[in-house]
């Protein structure tokens, strides 16, 4: 097999892995494992002749090096962990945090992917996921389950809890708005209007799921998209106002949204005026307050991988806060919590060193990448916001999302910039002849790697 033919096979596997992974990301069901996408991409990645130059290129990429250091540091945390089983679980879950960046960082410059195709696969995969969830909720509602459309009852994918899917929805909605405007500017009105369907679907899901932080994230990301396009499309400002009004109408029509607003008011009165005692519904304030004690005691190195939640639980033993679950009051010590903030989770578990490495992942691209795409900015902002109220990287759903899009939008951007001045980086394309010889059924619109 010649090198040219091998490159064609590699390219086909790389494309298949990317599309498979991101399309199934909003499902994560065992029947069609999302990890198969990483395996397919890995197979295309490993079929190569030149390893030395690829490794050199990877270690010139800071957005691979830092995730690799953080992953290694998480492994070191096992050495001083007193909860080894939990430490091993956390470390295994974090493997994609280094696998996806490595996979993209080691590709040579001739492999260039049209990211719009990949991101569109994510948009329409998320839309299909929402349609299936709403269909199942409708069936269960007709069977007599009156709560079928709300929060935990609505989010039925076992590997994708509500807060994680909410993050996916906000990101997919922002990408949909961005691509709709791009199509409109290209004079393609019908394809542009087609994106209104997933946007409306995502708003409905966010209203029903009642994940408060994602209401804020959704609004901020839509504003970022609108501001980006205002110079070339001034009417975007009017669209933002109309979209905001429509979103407010849809949100306010959801009983779950109204209930969460009432709960927010109760929480504010409890915390600020010490009113409505026993009606507090959110433990985050007390978790964050006690997490500072854990961080103070383990400032430099942290508690060790897997020990963070145990240390927090010890601090909470002295907390007398009670909460209302809709039926009864319960003590904060009745449940075992994580930090409900990835920033605090990382600082408590791995100390200042781990926290600074983690912070670089989120902030570094704004300073080191000369030209950060709007899609990359949207991804970084949804991560910055979502990580503030949830320990998103403690579960597979959060790790898969962050690792994949970080590699695709950040690591790959640095890789392409590194090869942009190389005259030897001849681009690889799949032609119609190649499709026939490989036996691939790839739509003609996707045959070029842009």
Account of the 3D structure:
The longest helix is centred in the first third of the chain and has 28 residues, at 115-142. The model is unreliable at 421-425 and 437-450 (pLDDT under 50). This protein starts with a helix and ends in a 12-residue tail after the last helix. It has helices at 3-24, 35-46, 52-58, 62-76, 84-93, 96-105, 115-142, 162-185, 189-194, 196-209, 212-229, 236-252, 255-273, 284-297, 308-316, 342-368, 374-389, 396-419, 432-438, and strands at residues 322-324, 329-331. It has a two-stranded antiparallel sheet. By secondary structure, it is mainly α. It has 19 helices and two strands.
Main features:
single chain; disordered C terminus; 450 residues; two-stranded antiparallel sheet; mainly alpha
List the helices and strands and how they pair.
Blueprint: H1 3-24, H2 35-46, H3 52-58, H4 62-76, H5 84-93, H6 96-105, H7 115-142, H8 162-185, H9 189-194, H10 196-209, H11 212-229, H12 236-252, H13 255-273, H14 284-297, H15 308-316, E1 322-324, E2 329-331, H16 342-368, H17 374-389, H18 396-419, H19 432-438
